[in-house]
Automatic annotation (TrEMBL):
Protein name: Cytochrome c oxidase subunit 2
Reaction(s) the record says it catalyses: 4 Fe(II)-[cytochrome c] + O2 + 8 H(+)(in) = 4 Fe(III)-[cytochrome c] + 2 H2O + 4 H(+)(out)
PANTHER family tied to this protein: CYTOCHROME C OXIDASE SUBUNIT 2, CYTOCHROME C OXIDASE, SUBUNIT II
Annotated family: Belongs to the cytochrome c oxidase subunit 2 family.
Keyword Transport: yes
Transmembrane segments: 35-57
Domain of life: Bacteria
Listed Gene3D superfamilies: Cupredoxins - blue copper proteins
Lineage: Bacteria, Pseudomonadati, Pseudomonadota, Alphaproteobacteria, Hyphomicrobiales
Keyword annotations of the record: Copper, Electron transport, Heme, Iron, Membrane, Metal-binding, Transmembrane, Transmembrane helix, Transport
Species per Swiss-Prot/TrEMBL record: Rhizobium laguerreae
Annotated InterPro entries: CcO_II (IPR045187), CcO_II-like_C (IPR002429), Copper_CuA (IPR001505), Cupredoxin (IPR008972), CuRO_CcO_Caa3_II (IPR034236), Cyt_c-like_dom (IPR009056), Cyt_c-like_dom_sf (IPR036909)
Amino acid sequence: MVIGGISIWAGVTFLLLHAARHRREAWPAEKAGALIAWGGVAFPTVVLLLLLGYAVWLMPAIRPWNLLAAKDGAIEVTGEQFWWRIRYPAVGDQPAFETANEIRLPVGRPATFSLKATDVIHSFWIPALGGKMDMIPGRTNFLTLTPTRTGSYRAPCAEFCGASHAYMALSVVVMEEDDYNAWRSRLAHGQASAADEGGQLLQRHGCVGCHSLRGLQIAGQTAPDLTLIGVRLSIGAGALANTPENIARFIRSPSSVKPGAKMPAFNMLPEDDIEEIARYLGGLK
C-alpha cells in the first residue's frame, strides 16, 4: 500500500511540475491525448488492480472462510454502550467463561473473533495487530488475527457509538503460551467468596442484579462480569487504572467518568460500604 501510494504521489507531482514549466509552444493534441490515456487511465488502473489483488491475496489470513469451524473456537466479543463483553469458549476440560473489557491471547497462535453488537454499531480494531471490523446489531462478523509479539496494546472502538465513545477501549494482552494457559485456567475456574463482607455488600445493595460474579448467588446479565476483576489492567473499559480508589470513584458516580453510562450513581451508600466493595473487587485476583 505504501509503495502504491508513493507511486501515485510521484506521478501526480511530476505532472504538476511538468505542467508548471514555461513552454513557448503548445502541446499537440495527440501528445495530450496520450498523456491522459497512459497517465490518467492506464497507470492508476494498473496500480489499483495490483493493490486490489494484493488485498484479496491477504484476505484468507485475516478472514476465516470456514465459518462453522470458526464458530467453534471463536472468542465472542460484543460491543455494548460503552463496554466490551468478552466470552471465551470451552476448551478441553476448561469451561467457557465471560469477562469484560480485556482480551488475552497467546503469542504466535491465530485467534478468531466472533463480533456482535447489542445496541448501535461499534467497530473492533486492535491497531498493533491489524484488521478492523464493524460490529452490527443483528449480525455476526468474524475476524482472525495472529499476534507475533508479546505486550499490552490498546484497542479503541473505531465507530462513533455515543457520548462515551472516546472512553470505550479494550486492553489486549499478548502472552507466552504457558502464561496464557495459566491465566485462562484461573479465569475459567475463578470463584468469589460470598462470605466476605464485600460480597455480602454487593448482594445487599443490589449490584448483582446487573453484574455477575461467579460464587455469588445471583448473576446479572446486563453489566460487565466482575469475576477476578482485580486481574484487569483497567476499569470502565479503559477509562481508569484498576485501583481500589478508582473503583470507588466509579461506584459513586459512573457518569462523571463515562458520560452516558447506564450504571446509576451509588453515592447515597455509606462511604465505608463503597470503600469495602472497592477493596473487595480490587482483591479479586
